[in-house]
Design a protein that fits this description.
globular; Rossmann fold; nine-stranded mixed β-sheet; disordered N terminus; about 25% helix
Length: about 500
């Protein structure tokens, strides 16, 4: 049986980056991303517009997710399109510099036909004007949309359109599977959708990841050029934002530093869980081995970027396998970095029920990353449209290359939430050092003892009061959206408090 659409039981895309190497509405930036006013000042460079055509038949849309995604409203549509054209590769005459100011030249050209998945409001009156374009993650040998899992609630209530792009070749043609599990083969990991469903995808072809950067540019151009028969069904975007998590965030790092200065295609970037090094430029005809970039030159986001960039980093990303710390940089008028306490590279929110199948010694991290990513998107939409920038955030406390933790093992510094500051569990990136690399990226959730809970909270009422205050503090600081207050409060666990 083929797994398809968003009903698949597992995707480990967000893990793979290091495993083989080691209601519609409006509001402000403190509300929903649909609240952005005005439009971006970025003017995209002219260039080829690809041919876009509906994809139908076969077994339906093939796009995997481990998380239980919110259903699309009845006033939304989900469609799939082929995108065809001729893309160029890029090269650099010198090694890519650590300051991010890449000087790229175009190289060879090749024809391609890939696919995009579009989820959007049907009617213009329900559309915010913001399009979020996610670079699909192929680390698990399948096209996956991990960032959509984190931002779906915000996209839907804001009225933003979402477009998932098969930018890399593994999702189309198949290729190496960086992360494999006993059940991943059931989803066709490593085979590519051309082989998995030739009735629907048989005409697609990808010339290799050296062309992925230009393919991503051309998809943005097609979305801006969309007419009534195009992928947005006549909706007119005011701004087009790029997003990616894990491997896709690393690819976006290279895109921001090298391609965006040439094409000026995207109005803003949400870069979630990047490593310290950028992705390679790639070799025609081959997939990019993202692990080649790990351990490379730590590289910042160029400080002369024309488009706002917000980076969200977990505990696993900054000190750990992804090695972001050497590439950390001060905030600027166009760059924000949010480091989120109590989080890990993958968590139970993204993995859903699959989290228990990891076989880790400790339960997988169940931290609050998704709330912060949703807020980051809302801020980015406002910021990119000329509104207020996101708040600056405290960074993790790090001494001698190691995190500073309190007596319970909870990290100091970073963005704080009630799950971290009014804890019943220790949420962290810490795991059994003898565990698998997958478990190292999954962090842990370690319950505090009843005795410790009794010390912290004299009563259930005290716990609930402190939890509520911490929730409201995170909202007031701009790191959690007011629309998520009720859900965050529902995660309080007074039943675990003794007495």
């Amino acid at each position: 049986m083929r797994w398809q659409r968003t009903t698949v039981a597992i995707t480990l895309a967000a893990l793979a980056v290091t495993v083989s190497a080691c209601s519609s509405g409006t509001g402000s930036a403190g509300g929903t991303s649909g609240g952005a006013t005005g439009s971006s000042t970025i003017v995209p460079a002219p260039g080829p517009v690809p041919t876009v055509a509906p994809l139908t038949g076969g077994s339906g849309i093939d796009l995997v997710s481990a998380a239980a995604l919110p259903p699309l409203p009845s006033t939304w549509t989900e469609d799939e399109y082929s995108v065809a054209g001729t893309a160029v590769s890029y090269h650099s005459a010198t090694p890519l510099p650590a300051n991010g100011r890449f000087d790229l030249q175009t190289g060879s050209s090749a024809s391609y036909e890939t696919r995009i998945v579009v989820r959007r409001p049907t009617l213009a009156k329900d559309f915010s004007g913001t399009v979020v374009v996610e670079w699909l993650n192929v680390s698990g040998g399948l096209d996956a949309a991990p960032e959509y899992s984190y931002i779906a609630n915000e996209l839907i209530r804001a009225g933003d359109a979402w477009v998932g792009v098969s930018a890399q070749s593994i999702g189309i043609e198949g290729g190496p599977v960086a992360v494999s599990t006993p059940v991943s083969a059931l989803g066709g990991a490593g085979r590519g959708i051309v082989a998995l469903d030739p009735a629907r995808y048989g005409k697609l072809h990808h010339p290799g990841d050296a062309y992925s950067y230009d393919i991503f540019t051309q998809v943005g151009r097609a979305l801006r050029d969309s007419g009534t028969s195009g992928p947005l069904g006549g909706l007119e975007p005011k701004q087009v934002l790029a997003a990616g998590e894990s491997q896709s965030a690393i690819m976006l790092t290279t895109y921001i530093d090298g391609v965006q200065p040439l094409e000026h295609m995207y109005d803003g970037f949400l870069v979630h869980s990047r490593s310290g090094s950028p992705a390679p430029l790639g070799t025609p005809g081959q997939p990019i081995d993202i692990t080649q970039g790990l351990g490379g030159t730590p590289t910042i986001i160029r400080t002369d970027t024309d488009a706002p960039v917000i980076m969200v980093e977990t505990e696993s990303d900054v000190v750990g396998l992804l090695g972001y710390l050497p590439a950390s940089q001060p905030d600027t008028p166009k760059i924000r970095t949010w480091e989120v306490a109590g989080t890990s590279h993958v968590d139970t929110y993204q993995l859903g029920s699959v989290a228990t199948a990891f076989g880790c010694t400790l339960p997988v991290n169940s931290g609050p990353d998704h709330y912060i990513v949703a807020s980051a998107l809302a801020h980015l939409a406002t910021w990119s449209a000329g509104g207020a920038p996101p708040p600056e955030a405290a960074r993790f406390d790090i001494v001698g290359g190691q995190y500073v933790r309190n007596s319970d093992g909870i990290i100091e510094g970073g963005i704080r939430t009630p799950q971290v500051d009014v804890p019943v569990d220790v949420l962290s990136s810490k795991t059994d050092p003898g565990g698998s690399i997958a478990c190292l990226l999954a962090g842990s959730t370690v319950p505090l003892s009843p005795a410790r809970l009794a010390q912290l909270y004299p009563s259930k009422q005290v716990y609930l009061s402190e939890y509520t205050k911490a929730t409201d503090a995170a909202i007031a600081a701009g790191f959690v959206l007011p629309q998520d207050r009720a859900e965050m409060l529902s995660e309080a666990q007074p039943g675990r408090i003794p007495g």
